[in-house]
Amino acid sequence: MRTKAFMMMAAAALAMAGCSNDENEVMDNWNGEIRLTSGLEVQQTETRGITTDLQTTQIAQDNHVGFFINEEVASGETATTTYTPNLDYTADGNGGFSGTTVYFPQSGKDVNIYAYAPRKTDLTLDGNYSFTVKADQSKDADYIASDLLWGQPMKLKTGSTTDYEPANPVARTKENVPVSFKHLLSKIEIELVAGDGLTTDDFKGATLTVMNTLPGTSLTLSSGAISSASGTAADITVATYPTDATPAAFTGSAIVVPQTIAKDTKFIKLNLKKGGDLYYRVPNGTTDTALELASGKIYKYKITAKLTGLTVTSTIANWETIGNGNPITGDAVME
C-alpha cells in the first residue's frame, strides 16, 4: 500500500497570462486577475450504481467549491488587499469555474490559496467545517455532497517528476499555479455477483446498505486535517436498484468518515425484494481484526450473494489507484 501523504486527484490552475509594455509582445489583456480552472486526476476504477464516471476526471458539474485567498504579509504587517472569505465558485464539469473575479495584490506580494468542497456558507479560514455525510447516497447529488475535498497549490519537488509539495505562498506570475485536491474521507465500493440459488434478476428491486458508521467529522480549513469520526452510528443507503434494472453489473459506492469498525459488526447489508436480508460482518482480512477505514482510501468489496449468505472479497487501495491492496475474504449469513 502506498504511503504517499495525499492523493493528487485534482489540478486546478490559476492561469495568469501576463501583460507587457513591450509593444512587440502579444497582449492578452491580463489585468492581474486570478483565473481558476480545475481537473481531477483520472481514477482507474470508479464504481457507483450504474454511473461509473462520477467526479473522476473533473469536479462534478454544479459542485460549489469554496476558495480562501489572502495576501502573504510579515508578522505585524497589514495586508494591502483584502479578499472576500469563502469565495463561491461553481464547477462546470469540464475543468472550469464560474464566480467572482479576484486579482493579485497591487503591492506585488504573494498570496496563499486554500480550497474545499462541497462549499458551506459562513465559514472562515481560521475556523472548522462541521461535516456530515448523507444517509442516502443512492443519488449522484447526495454522493457528491458527501465527498469532502480539500486543496492547496502544489509544485513538484526539486529533482522529482512524481512527488509534490505545498506551494503556498504563491508569487505573482503568468504561469499556471496547480491547486491539488484530495479526498478526505473513505470510499466503500461494492459489486454484487449472483451465487448459488440466485440470479442477477434477484437483485432487481434490492437495496444495498453500508451499516453502523459514524457520520460526522470536522475539517480544519487552513490545514486540511479532519477530526475523529463523531455522531451516532447509522446506516447509509448505497443503491436501490430499479425493478427493471438491466445493468452490466450491479454496483454501488458510498463515502464514509474514516473510523474503526469493530470485529463482528454488521457492515454491509443486501435486502432482497423477494424477501430476506444478507449481511457481511467485519473482520478485515486474515487477521480477523477490526476494520480500519483511512482517509483517502477505497475499500472495494466484491460480494457473491447466495441464499445461505454472502461471500466477500475486498481490496484496500489509494483512492487514485485501484487494486493495489491484498484481497481478503469473508462470509455472511442470513439473519
TrEMBL record:
<dbReference type="InterPro" id="IPR025049">
    <property type="entry name" value="Mfa-like_1"/>
</dbReference>
<dbReference type="Pfam" id="PF13149">
    <property type="entry name" value="Mfa_like_1"/>
</dbReference>
<keyword id="KW-0732">Signal</keyword>
<feature type="signal peptide">
    <location>
        <begin position="1"/>
        <end position="17"/>
    </location>
</feature>
<dbReference type="InterPro" id="IPR042278">
    <property type="entry name" value="Mfa-like_1_N"/>
</dbReference>
<protein>
    <submittedName>
        <fullName>Fimbrillin family protein</fullName>
    </submittedName>
</protein>
